[in-house]
Amino acid sequence: MATNKKQRKKTIGQLMYDSTETDGNKEPLMDYIISWTLRHAADDFKEGKTLWLYCRQILGKIIGKTIEENDSLSEICVYKQEVEIDLWVEFKLNDEDHAILIEDKYYGKLSENQLEDYIQKFDKYYKENEPSYERHYCLISCIQREDEKFNQYYGKAKDLGFDLFSLKELVTDITPPSGSDIFDEFWLEDW
User: Fold this and answer.
1) Any domain includes 177
2) Number of domains comprising the chain
3) Which helix (H) or strand (E) holds 77?
4) How many whole angstroms separate alpha carbon 161 and alpha carbon 150?
5) Which domain holds residue 178?
6) Is 149 contained in some domain?
7) Has residue 147 been placed in a domain?
8) Is residue 37 part of a domain?
9) pLDDT digits (tens, 9 = 90+) for 41-90
10) How far is the C-alpha of 46 from the C-alpha of 52, rounded, in Å?
11) Which end of the chain, N or C, is surrounded by fewer C-beta atoms within 10 Å?
């Protein structure tokens, strides 16, 4: 048993390792690291250029736009578990206001009507309070797109207008390590 644990620990990396065999509390950790990544895309973090550029690439993929070095990216605010939504993100890209509803899944399925409820809450807020915001809907999973479970578990999200990503799809253009242990282990390791 000790050898199995040691081997498993080595293959999934330290960040996501715990002694449970289930998802445990991995989704809150995903919330935190994805939030941290998106916040590091802001102009305020330009001094860590490699990490900053990688974070901008990930945010750009999520919203379907290329974010260039000279683009202004500011006022990034990430709310974790706001009205049960994993991540509710707001930011300003150049002169455009954006909002993202992010659902992340470790290896689990969606609950019945989960996304419909989130969309209703999210859209209601922006229709009533901030109608100028461009809204985005994103589901991020550890399951690779090639795995039949990806479409089986998340196909409904696509039907509801969500962009679907495996973690690895968000970093396909990122090769040398960023120099940040948090970023590199979460985004560049297999777990």
Assistant:
1) yes
2) 1
3) strand 73-82
4) 16
5) 75-188
6) yes
7) yes
8) no
9) 999 999 879 999 999 999 999 999 999 999 999 999 999 998 889 999 99
10) 6
11) N
